[in-house]
Design goal:
CATH architecture of the largest domain: 2-Layer Sandwich
Shape: globular
Helix content: 25-40%
Bound molecules: nicotinamide-adenine-dinucleotide
Strand order of the largest sheet: 12-11-7-10-9-8-13
CATH class of the largest domain: Alpha Beta
Strand content: 15-25%
Number of domains: 2
Radius of gyration: 20 Å
Order of helices and strands: EHEHEHEHEHEHEHHHEEEEEHHHEH
CATH superfamily of the largest domain: Dihydrodipicolinate Reductase, domain 2
Oligomer: single chain
Length: 343
């Protein structure tokens, strides 16, 4: 196979990002069709990235253009139907996080990819970030000894799109913002979660015009792992000061930190009273630039080599289970065992 031909489903924020990444950095993958029901968005993104074949639905794209794979970058409630349809038509699937809204939806997707023999990769790009990937290698290598505790934070600058501020259509910020932390915890600690306790708070919703029930912009999660280790996640969105993602892992022999508040490598000094200015990352596409590039390189390479991706549907399902456990925890004001969610 020469190039992997890809249909990009969703032409919004992430549809644009992945279209740009493929065009500029992943020569083996080519976006040959674009799908979005909103004509103005479809045309704006199509024009920006020179994608000629544009459709209002995946069904139309499947009938109109030949391709081997889809990248699904649509709102979470649409993930199950789009992934199942693409798999049924023999297309490999790259699916953005969160995998779906419920475990039943995750199971439908897993069954479809299994039945039709296609590959599935979930968009946990942190696993491909050079710093996160190196940390995983070094923890595996025993450098800090057995991990005892992990603390992960994601603070994002702006509100996500309106559909993502409603628990019913997105499962809230725990899913939208902190899915990445939930996956990072399981991955770096090499253990599944046993119990979670979550507290949430809402400081800026009203002033930003968000009136949806149970909206929160601050979230603190405590996790007990099956290994006996402890985890902690903080989520703030909107935080306004920039995009901030950092992790600390404490092992029996030492401590490891991933990321820092200082974002860009440029340091500016214009005033001795204010001292040095080291700008923080503005947006997530900047902080995880290499993660987004390498995850799509990986997806294309897996299709060409006919081997399964490193980030699986099972990983996506675990993150959804943790979102559901965390949401139940703050709604019912109690710790929730993953077993209650997963059965
Ligand atoms: N990996 C990451 O870091 C990251 C970051 C942000 C968002 N996301 C995820 O990416 C997905 C999209 O988020 P976004 O911020 O780009 O949202 P968005 O609202 O900016 O874009 C979604 C687009 O999908 C279109 N759409 C809706 N239903 C569709 C359908 N059935 N078929 C085709 N297009 C459809 C909408 O018209 C919209 O243009 C979500 O799952 C979100 O959680 C991932």
């Amino acid at each position: 196979m020469a190039n992997v031909r890809i249909c990009m489903i969703g032409a919004g924020r992430v549809g644009k990002l992945h279209s740009s990444t493929l065009r500029r950095h992943v020569p083996g993958g080519e976006v040959v069709a674009l799908v979005d029901p909103v004509r103005s968005i479809l045309d704006a993104t199509g024009d920006q990235f020179g994608i000629e074949r544009r459709y209002a639905s995946l069904e139309e794209a499947l009938d109109g253009t030949a391709f081997e794979a889809v990248i699904i970058t649509t709102p979470t409630p649409t993930h199950r139907d789009l992934a199942v349809l693409a798999a049924a038509r023999g297309k490999h699937v790259f699916l953005e996080k969160p995998m779906a809204l419920s475990l039943a939806e995750c199971d439908d997707i897993l069954a479809a990819v299994e039945r039709h023999g296609v590959l599935l990769q979930i968009g946990f790009m942190r696993r491909f970030d050079p710093d996160f990937a190196a940390a995983w290698e070094r923890i595996q290598g025993g450098e800090i000894g057995e991990p005892m505790m992990i603390k992960s934070l994601t603070h994002g600058p702006g509100l996500p799109p309106p559909w993502a501020t409603d628990l019913k259509t997105s499962n809230g910020n725990l899913a939208e913002v902190n899915s990445h932390d939930l996956d990072t915890l399981r991955w770096l600690m090499a253990s599944n979660p046993r119990r979670m306790y979550v507290e949430v708070a809402n400081f800026k919703g009203a002033e930003r015009g968000v009136t949806t029930e149970h909206f929160y912009d601050n979230m603190l999660a405590t996790v007990k792992f099956e290994s006996g280790a402890l985890g902690h996640i903080s989520g703030v969105c909107p935080c306004d000061y920039g995009y901030d993602s950092r992790v600390e892992i404490i092992g029996k022999k030492g401590i490891m930190q991933i990321g820092e508040m200082k974002g860009e490598s440029i340091v500016v000094c214009v005033d001795r009273d204010h001292g040095l200015v080291t700008p923080i990352f503005r947006r997530w596409p900047d902080r995880f630039r290499w993660g987004y590039i390498r995850e799509l390189e990986h997806f294309v390479a897996c299709i060409l080599a006919e081997r399964p991706p490193q980030v699986t549907g099972a990983d996506g399902r675990w993150a959804v289970a943790m979102v559901l456990a965390g949401t139940r925890s703050f709604l019912e004001e109690r710790p929730v065992y993953l077993q209650e969610i997963m059965g």
